[in-house]
Request: fold
Amino acid sequence: MPIAINGSGTITPTSAVQPAGSILQVVSATTTSTVSNTTETFADSGLTASITISAGSKVLVMCVQTLDVQRGSGSVAGSCAIKLLRGSTDIFAPGNTKNVGIEASSDVQKILFLPLHFSFLDTGASTGSNTYKIQGRVQSANQSARVRFQDDSNPSTMTLLEVAG
Reply:
């Protein structure tokens, strides 16, 4: 940390300007609370984190979202879609045809469990507090399809890094 010595001999810290790309702070949040969604409407997965940033900074969002997708007992495939939001604004939302799921191959109920890893650099974050969260939904509510987040207390983690602009 840089310091300054004034004329009276007092030593005071001064703020240092970090070069672009420097990591200024790291915030992390973990949840193990199970959340389930059986609808075609996006709902919170329970994974959320907040960070307060300086002017000109960006936020690198890194997530490990555990989920399991269940397709029902019919011939309908079971799949889910997830998205990342800053506040109420979608910032990473793959198209409707980009899903995680199980193909319909028989009339037997099937479940797929996986930890979904992804990162996103948010260049549109505003100065001050920014809250990020994951939402998910099933692609088709037919035949008892569902997506469950943090099933059996499997942890999901979101890490936010403030990156100097």
Notes: DSSP finds no helices and 13 strands in the chain. The chain has one domain: 18-163.
